[in-house]
Amino acid sequence: MTTGSFAWRGATIPFHPGESVASALMRAGVLQLGQDGAGCRLRYFCGIGACQSCLVSVGGTIVEACLTPAGDDLNIKAVEDEDG
Amino acid sequence: MAEPAISSFDVLVIGGGAAGVAAAAELASAGLSVALAEQRPTLGGAYHRQPVGGSARQLRGQRQWLRLLRGLAGAGVEQRLGHVFIGLESDGIAMLDDRAARRIRSIKARALVIAVGAIERVLPRPGWQLDGVMTSGGLQMLLKETGGVPPGDLLIAGSGPLNVAVAADLIRLGRPPVAVIENGNPFARPGAALRLAAHPGLVAEAARHLARLASARVPWLRGSALAAIERRDGRLRATVRMPGGGSRMFAADIVALHDGIRPNAFGLPAETQAQPIVVRAGDCREALGIRAAVADGRHAARQVAAMLAGTVRDGSADRKIGRQRRAQAILHELFRPVDGYGLAALPDDTILCRCEGRTVGDLRLMLAETDAPGLREIKLNGRFGMGLCQGRFCADAVRDMVAAARPAVDGGASGPLSRDRWPLRPASIAALAADDELQEGK
Fold first, then answer.
1. Structure-model confidence comparison of residues B319 and A26, the more confident one
2. B267 phi and psi, to 5 degrees?
3. Is B434 exposed, middle or buried (0-12, 13-18, 19+ CB in 10 A)?
C-alpha cells in the first residue's frame, strides 16, 4: 500500500497514505534527525507534538515530524541543513 | 485597512481526542455553534490514534470511538483539522496555526474547552537524550499509525501499566521487546492489588497483557531500574540496576521510556468563568486516562453550556470520574518505585533539560549558591524550562530537585516553573506574517 516517497538527506523514504513524516522515517530506520539551532540533537521522542525534539524543515517551515503528514516528492530537510 | 478574518463560534474545543470529541458533540447537541480544533490531520488523540492507509487492524476501544464519531457527525460541529492551538490573545481571540495553509486563523468564541490530553512523565537518566530513545507512548503511536515497528531490538523501561501494554502490542506484531524494566513491583503490594479487584476491567486487561509477556518469554524485571544508556558500536547499551544490587546490560536499537502520565497543562490559559470562559477537560485537567475522558468531556460541556446560559450547575462530577480517580490511585501505589525517585543519584553530566542542553550538575551548582535562586531565576538564568518544549519534559524533575535542596524556595515545590505564555508552540514566521498580511491587506 506504499503510494509515495519523499526525500530526506539524499535518501528516498517511502510512506503510506496519511502517514506522518516521523512514522515513515522511523520505519525506514532513520533515528537521527540532525541538530537544532542550539546544537541539541533532534530525534523522534513523544509522538504527540509536545517535546519539540523531532523538528524538521518542510518547504522552509520548521515543523514537528510527528504532526506533519508525508507528501509525495516533498523535500524534507534537517533543520541544520536548511540554508539561512 | 480590513479587519482580519475572524470566525465566531459559541464554543471552541481544542483537542480532537476522546474528551474533546465528546465535549464538542455534547455542546453542539445543546444547540451551540461549535468548532473543534485538532493539531493532527485526523481526530483520535493518543488513545484513538487511527491507522493510516486503510489498514483494517483491530483497534482497542474502536467501538467507543466510532460511537463518539457518530455523535460528532450528527451534531454539526465544524472541524478544524491540522490546526495547532498557539494561544489566547488578551482580547479573547484564540489563535490557531493552520499547518496546511501556513496561516494563523483567529477564532472568537464565548467559551473554550481545552482538551489537549496528557504527556508522559519521563525521568532524566544518563543518555535519555540519545536518538533511538523515545517515550513508550511515542513508540505506541508508531505502532498504531502503521502497524509497523521500527527496525532493531527494543527495550522498554520505567514504570507503569503502559509499558506492559506496549510490550504486549509489540509481541502481537511479532517483535517482542528484549525486556521490560519496571521500577515498581506490583506483586509486592498485595493491599493495592486487592483494591484493584474493584476494577475488573483493569484486572482483565492487565492479566491479558501479562499472559502475553509470559508466553513470549519477555522478562518483566520488577524492582529494577534503567541506570544509564550509552551509544556503543552503533547500538544503545542500557545498564540496569537489579533488585539484589547487581547490574545487567542490555543491547537494543530502540529504548522506550515511560514513568507515568501527567496533564499536558503547560502554558494553557487559566480556567475562568468570565467570557471567554475557559474550562479544561479530560487528561489535561486531571490525568485519569481513557476510561474517564469521555465522561469528563461531557461534564465540561454541560458546565460550559450552563455558564453560557447564565445558570449555575452544581460542580459535582460524573461518578465515573471519581471511580477512575480511585483506580489511578491504586495503579500509582501498585507501580510505586521500589527504591524511590533516584534524582539524587544521577551523575552531574545527566541532561536534565534536553531543549537547552542543561545538566543535573548545572542545576546543582545553582542550588549550591549562597544566595538561593528562586524558581524564576532557575528558569531565566539557568534556562531550565526555557526551551521549545516549555518545560514539559524537565519541569517536574527540576522542581523536585529544587524542593529537595531548598524546601523554602519561593513558591515551594508546587510553584510553577513555567508561566502561561504564547505562542504555546513555535509558530512559523511565515504563518505569523501571513496573519499580518490579512490584517493590512485585502
1. A26
2. 70, 5
3. middle
Given pLDDT bands bounded at 50, 70 and 90, which one contains residue A83? Answer: low
pLDDT tens, B82-91?
999 999 987 8
Indicate if the pLDDT at residue B295 is higher than 80: yes
Please give the pLDDT value at position B413.
42
pLDDT for res B418: 57
d(CA B99, CA B84): 7
CA B267 to chain A, closest CA, distance in angstroms equals 12
Domains identified in chain B and CATH numbers:
6-119+263-309 (3.50.50.60), 122-259 (3.50.50.60), 343-414 (no CATH)
What mean pLDDT is predicted for residues B23-35? 97
Asked if residue B439 has pLDDT above 80, the reply is no
pTM of structure: 0.93
Any idea what the CATH number is for the domain that residue A56 is in? 3.10.20.440
Report how many domains make up chain A: 1
* Residues of A whose CB is below 8 A from B119: 46, 48, 50
- Backbone Cα Rg of chain B: 23
3 state DSSP class of A43 = coil
Please name the residue of chain A whose CA is at the shortest distance from the CA of residue B264.
A50
Position B414 scores a pLDDT of: 45
B57 in A contact zone (CB under 8 Å): no
Name the residue among A41, A52, A67 with its Cβ closest to that of B389.
A52
CB atoms < 10 A from the CB of B61, how many? 13
CA distance A60 to chain B (A): 9
Q: How far is CA B203 from the centre of its chain?
A: 24
Residue B125, pLDDT > 50, answer yes
Give contacts of A51 with chain B, Cβ < 8 Å.
135, 354, 389, 392-393
Range of the domain at A16: 4-80
Instruction: Identify the pLDDT of residue B408.
Output: 61
Mean pLDDT of B397-415: 70
CA distance B155 to chain A (A): 15
- Say which amino acid occupies B339: D
